[in-house]
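Office hours follow-up: a student asked to see two folded examples consecutively, so here they are.
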Amino acid sequence: MYLLYTIIASLVSFLVLKWMKKRKYCTDSKRLDGKTVLITGGNSGIGKETAIALANRGARVIIACRDVEKAEKAVREIKFRSHSLNVLHMELDLANLRSIRDFCKKFLQAEKRLDILINNAAMPSVLDWTDDGFSMCFGVNHLGHFLLTNLLLPRLKECAPSRVITLACSIYKYQKLDFQDLNYNLLPFFTYSRSKLANIYFSQELAHITEGKGVTSYAVHPGFAQSGWTCHYSFLFRILMKAVMHMFFVSCEVAAQTVVYCAVSDDAAKHSGGFFVDCKLANLRPFAKDAGVAKKLWEASERLVNLS
């Protein structure tokens, strides 16, 4: 009898885990020939799988990364797996505002098109600071992409219809922004949650200010993926999380599907400013849809990055 209970419990656990990891694939077969895609952090994880998927559809894919050596290795893999030679990398450090400005200047000089911008790179919950004195999560995850997108926005408008996809996360729901302390950097989980909420507000306000100008904006929760974010933590934590991720998290290829969907889907284009999960529009908590807060964050962000 004990053996029977053990077998039943194991079977139930297996089915539960399988259900938790079940995600939708993007079934839209649209090609992206002639389109240019820029992906931040495209050298690993979800960003790299997104790059492979879009390069395979014919897009010119540029991955923007801080580590040149890792970027070169990733480009070789992306080319091999996508059977495309139209893949390259450019150096970008989202933790440094000067690097972002230099990158945008070089990009605009070298590239005549920008059809899809994917704000993918992110820092996990680390108690560290950017070169400009911002908390690493808020500085990279929000402010870095905020400045990057604004500096590239004229080119996105020129190439309309174009899209901006910003990777957020469902854990936004556990925090609200404190405008007296946007640079909050005390409890790691809450710091990361706030940065992801900022991503959602940013995506909504971007959709508002570009309405009727041919640029659409989407926030995406890709799911919890088996990516390399644990590299910022101790060896013991990495070992523990590797086991947890194997059981509960999805592969980066699967996690990239909603990003790909928002990059190509005509249906997604009807919902600029929307939040997408599992290749479909999803609901947000009421506080995360506050247009007044989104505008206030945008204006505060302009001041923080000195965007005139």
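And the second, which I mentioned at the end of office hours:
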Amino acid sequence: MQIFHPALCATLVALHFLATPATADDLPPGMTAAGLRSGWQTATGSHMSALHVQLAGGWKTYWRAPGEAGVPPQFDWAGSDNVASVAVHWPRPQVFETNGMRTVGYRHEMILPLEITPADPTRPVRLSASVEMGICDHICVPVLLDLAAEITGPGAPDPIIAAALKARPEPHPGAARCTLAPIADGMHVRAEIDLPPMGVGEVALIELRGRPVWVSDPVTHRRGGRLISEADMVPDSASPFAVNPDDLVITILGEGGQAIEISGCPG
């Protein structure tokens, strides 16, 4: 469950376009360009493309775990042809503080690399997707993008996509231990992570892989070389629920662009 405050919602805008960016006349207020970057074929036979959304000054959009009051992009690949799977790669996000509330996302533009695995590598790929996302400035606008692109040939390396891939949080094998406890409307998570300090303003982001749940803004502090972060998880049912510790993902953002990701948090 993700919060998108109804008082801030304007209208749902549906856009239909190919890999060529949409013109400004086709876009909602706050969005200046949107499209799919053509990308290249990888050594494994997959194809690396990207969703590229550009925003007007002051506007932002959200990361996969958007914070207390945001809407993460949601993807539907139904209608694609010769597509076995699509993996979305997420660059390091920014943290925003607005009216005492923390959200997580991207300002000015969002570049999400898309790794497309064809069902048959010898045939062209037609990628068809509906992307639901929110963009915000003083108001928030929910947007529905309908995208389609024909992907053929080896393509060519794209430095913009390559930079977004390089900006992903580094996988971190460090020791993380979690304690889970039921609360009235969900589960409380306490994570203890053995991690050297990452500078001023460390931020811990806690999410649950594979299930949409609302997550409170984590409360984070340090005890020397140990980072401790706590948050509440509330599902749509607003009741305690089973959590597999292997599905917990913790991202730590530090000073100077540092970012690490810990997958799984055993008890």
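Two things to take away from it. Confidence is low (pLDDT under 50) at residues 1-23. The domain at 6-166 is CATH 2.60.40.1250 (Immunoglobulin-like).
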